[in-house]
Design a protein that fits this description.
The chain has 653 residues and is mainly β. 9% of the residues lie in helices and 33% in strands. Among the domains are: 106 residues, no CATH class; 43 residues, no CATH class. It contains 6 helices and 28 strands. A hairpin with a 5-residue loop joins strand 11 and strand 12. The radius of gyration is 43 Å and the shape is extended. About 5% of the residues have low confidence. InterPro entries: TCTN1-3, TCTN1-3_dom, TCTN1-3_N.
Length: 653
């Protein structure tokens, strides 16, 4: 034991059992244990024995009765000098004169040297880690006192170090903060030293060590700022220059203004920064156990001019919880724990140029109970403030990424149209699939599964699939801009429809095979940046094309062919293609002729034949490349001369 108290257990019935403790039971001359004596008592020297009886187990405790605290001035009942208690104890359990059990204890306890005085308030000077280790004695944990087994502790006297000199801490914790490294020539730490080691080893003193980073004194790089806490882009005498599109919004505490958003994996991230002029509408699933409060609404926001504006918050109560609670477990009313939480938050940022003028927040609160799953909704909307009328609001006329594409049916009395893709649910069947709008700038791919009978007529199947695909596009025109007017036909582009290809191939009466099924709907939207409004790019749709891709449907026979239904997946894809606002200038005749010598368009580049002789070649010094080039030219000239017939005649003469 190394503490003043130790516990053990006696198994069995302790009724009529006498427990005793004996101090130093070994014979001083022979070193053997003395014969057990059941006539002992529960106290021996400075040791005391306590027994707590039980039904089938009794707790046996051995404790040291004297104190090991070091003496302070004018104190008694303490240790005047550091000491160590080393004694041998024997605990006996006897019934009469018969020994039932015995326990041998080897006690080695050091004096408690904990510092209880006043600590100096002088500041600790931390040395430069590039020249000295930060902690030269890591095991020195107690200020003003000696730490046991810490041989590098300067508070330990020579007499006290003799008590544990053979069991000092080793390694870095014991004070060896600058050990010899394997690459050192005088190091013998490697078990196997190769023959070439003396030629490549490092001959240096231990002051020049890789543990402190002395080997390279290069330029230091500034550490990167944490991702969600950045300093303001200001300097003394220079105000904040305002926001640009995509810049994170900054709070008064120099941190990002965050609202939960969806990540690329589809999960919600609570600490996602809000980007300037980027609106979004997300839904996040949570329950009472994992619910976390977001950023407080009393946080002030940097307007963009180094001024701070307060959020205008309006709290409302949820009346219909069914729109937000998607799943509920049947729990007894007495066991349900409920809490008032946030169901939805709607942020409206009023902006002008590069600054934020106003922030309006609407918070919907409701009660969430244990066992329920809540669908939280978070929306952020940026509204532009008209400079001519401070109270009139209008949205950006162009499309913004993530906003729905406007569609219209101009041939009907009600011009309102829709352009959607599927959002499957459950088993992914088309019968239960819902729709979601096509978002501008977001390439999408979705689909559903159609159940087809083995005796399905091919013509009926083609018509059924085409009908389901056409149900996604309830429109004849697409708005060029986000604020296209239904009364102005020039604000819309007509949808170009390419009918599915049909080869009229007959199946010869075979069942379960249908060719030319238009199972894939392809929507291509061509857009361009045609200008800017208050520094924000104005994106406009130029054309929309819809085409179909056909497949060969064949009935897939299941196990034993007992099922007469087969599955046909039908898909819809949306692709956004950006083109320049103005067509590129036509290629001139000179450019057509020059293409033959253009190194970027041809594999053979004749202008680079003498590239090593030019100043652009940096593989070696220019003087060396010039000398090698002249020598190569001399060899070519010499070969040309010697291969000439008149040279052989002259040589023969």
């Amino acid at each position: 034991m190394s503490a003043p108290r130790v516990n053990s257990f006696f198994l069995g019935n302790s009724s009529g059992v006498n427990f005793s403790i004996i101090l130093s039971p070994r014979d001083a001359e022979t070193g053997k244990l003395q014969p057990a004596n059941c006539s002992g008592s529960k106290r021996a020297g400075d040791w005391n024995l306590d027994v707590t009886p039980g039904v089938s187990t009794s707790k046996v405790s051995v404790s040291l009765t004297r104190t090991l605290e070091l003496c302070l001035p004018n104190a008694t009942e303490c240790c005047p000098s550091p000491l160590r208690v080393v004694e041998t104890l024997q605990v006996l359990a006897c019934r009469g004169s018969v020994v039932l059990a015995q326990l041998l204890i080897q006690a080695e306890i050091f004096a408690n040297s904990s510092f209880t005085g006043n600590v100096s308030e002088n500041a600790t000077i931390i040395p430069n880690q590039a020249f000295k280790p930060l902690g030269s004695c890591p095991c020195d944990l107690t200020a003003g006192a000696c730490d046991v087994r810490c041989c590098c502790d300067l508070e330990c006297t020579a007499d006290l170090q003799q008590l544990f000199s053979g069991s000092c801490f080793t390694g870095v914790f014991g004070g060896d903060v600058n050990p010899p490294y394997d690459q050192l020539c005088t190091s013998q730490s490697m078990e196997y030293t190769p023959e070439w080691f003396p030629f490549l080893c490092v001959q240096s003193s231990l002051d020049n060590t890789p543990f402190l980073g002395y080997f390279y004194h290069g330029s230091t790089s500034t550490p990167k700022v944490p991702s969600f806490k950045i300093p303001l882009q200001t300097s003394p005498g220079k105000p904040f220059t305002g926001y640009r599109e995509g810049d994170p919004i900054i709070t008064e505490e120099d941190e990002y203004f965050t609202v939960p958003q969806q990540s690329l994996a589809g999960q919600c991230t609570g600490n996602a920064p809000v980007a300037y002029l980027h609106s979004f509408d997300v839904k996040c699933l949570t329950n009472l156990e994992s619910y976390k409060e977001g950023l407080p609404h009393d946080v002030r926001i940097n307007s963009g001019t180094a001024d701070f504006i307060q959020q205008n918050v309006v709290y409302r109560a949820i009346t219909d919880r069914g729109k937000f609670i998607t799943e509920s477990e049947n729990l007894l009313a007495a066991e349900v724990l409920c809490q008032n939480v946030t169901f939805a938050e709607h942020y409206k940022f009023i902006w002008k140029d590069k600054n934020i003028e106003q922030v309006n927040v609407t918070v919907f609160l409701g009660s969430l109970c244990d066992g329920e799953i809540l669908t939280q909704r978070f929306t952020v909307e940026f509204l532009s403030l008209n400079s001519t009328n401070g109270e009139e609001l209008f949205e950006h006329p162009g499309y913004q990424v993530g906003k729905p594409v406007r569609a219209a049916n101009l041939n009907a009395s009600d011009p309102l149209g829709s352009l959607n893709i599927w959002q499957p649910a459950g088993r992914g069947l088309c019968a239960s699939a819902t729709y979601r709008p096509v978002l501008f700038g977001v390439d999408s791919y979705s689909g559903c599964i159609l159940e087809v009978d083995i005796n399905e007529d091919c013509s009926f199947l083609r018509g059924n699939v085409t009908e389901k695909l056409n149900a996604l596009i309830q429109a004849t025109h697409i708005g060029k801009r986000d604020n296209s007017s239904y009364s102005d036909l020039n604000d819309w582009v007509e949808i170009i429809r390419l009918d599915p290809f049909s080869s009229n191939v007959s199946t010869g009466g075979l069942k379960g095979i249908c060719p030319d099924i238009p199972a894939n709907l392809n929507i291509r939207i061509i857009f361009s940046k045609v200008g800017a409004v208050q520094g924000i790019p104005l994106q406009q749709i130029l054309a929309v094309q819809i085409s179909y891709s056909t497949v060969l449907w064949q009935f897939q026979c299941g196990l034993g062919c007992k099922n007469t239904l087969s599955l046909l997946p039908i898909t819809a894809s949306v692709q956004f293609i950006e083109v320049p606002a103005q067509p590129p200038p036509p290629v001139t005749r000179y450019q057509k002729l020059y293409e033959e010598f253009d190194c970027n368009r041809n594999e053979v580049c004749w202008p680079q034949l003498l590239y090593p002789l030019t100043r652009f070649y940096t593989g070696e010094p220019y003087s060396q490349s010039l000398a090698k080039g002249l020598f190569l030219a001399f060899l070519v000239l010499l070969a040309a001369i010697t291969s000439n017939p008149w040279f052989s005649k002259l040589w023969n003469r």
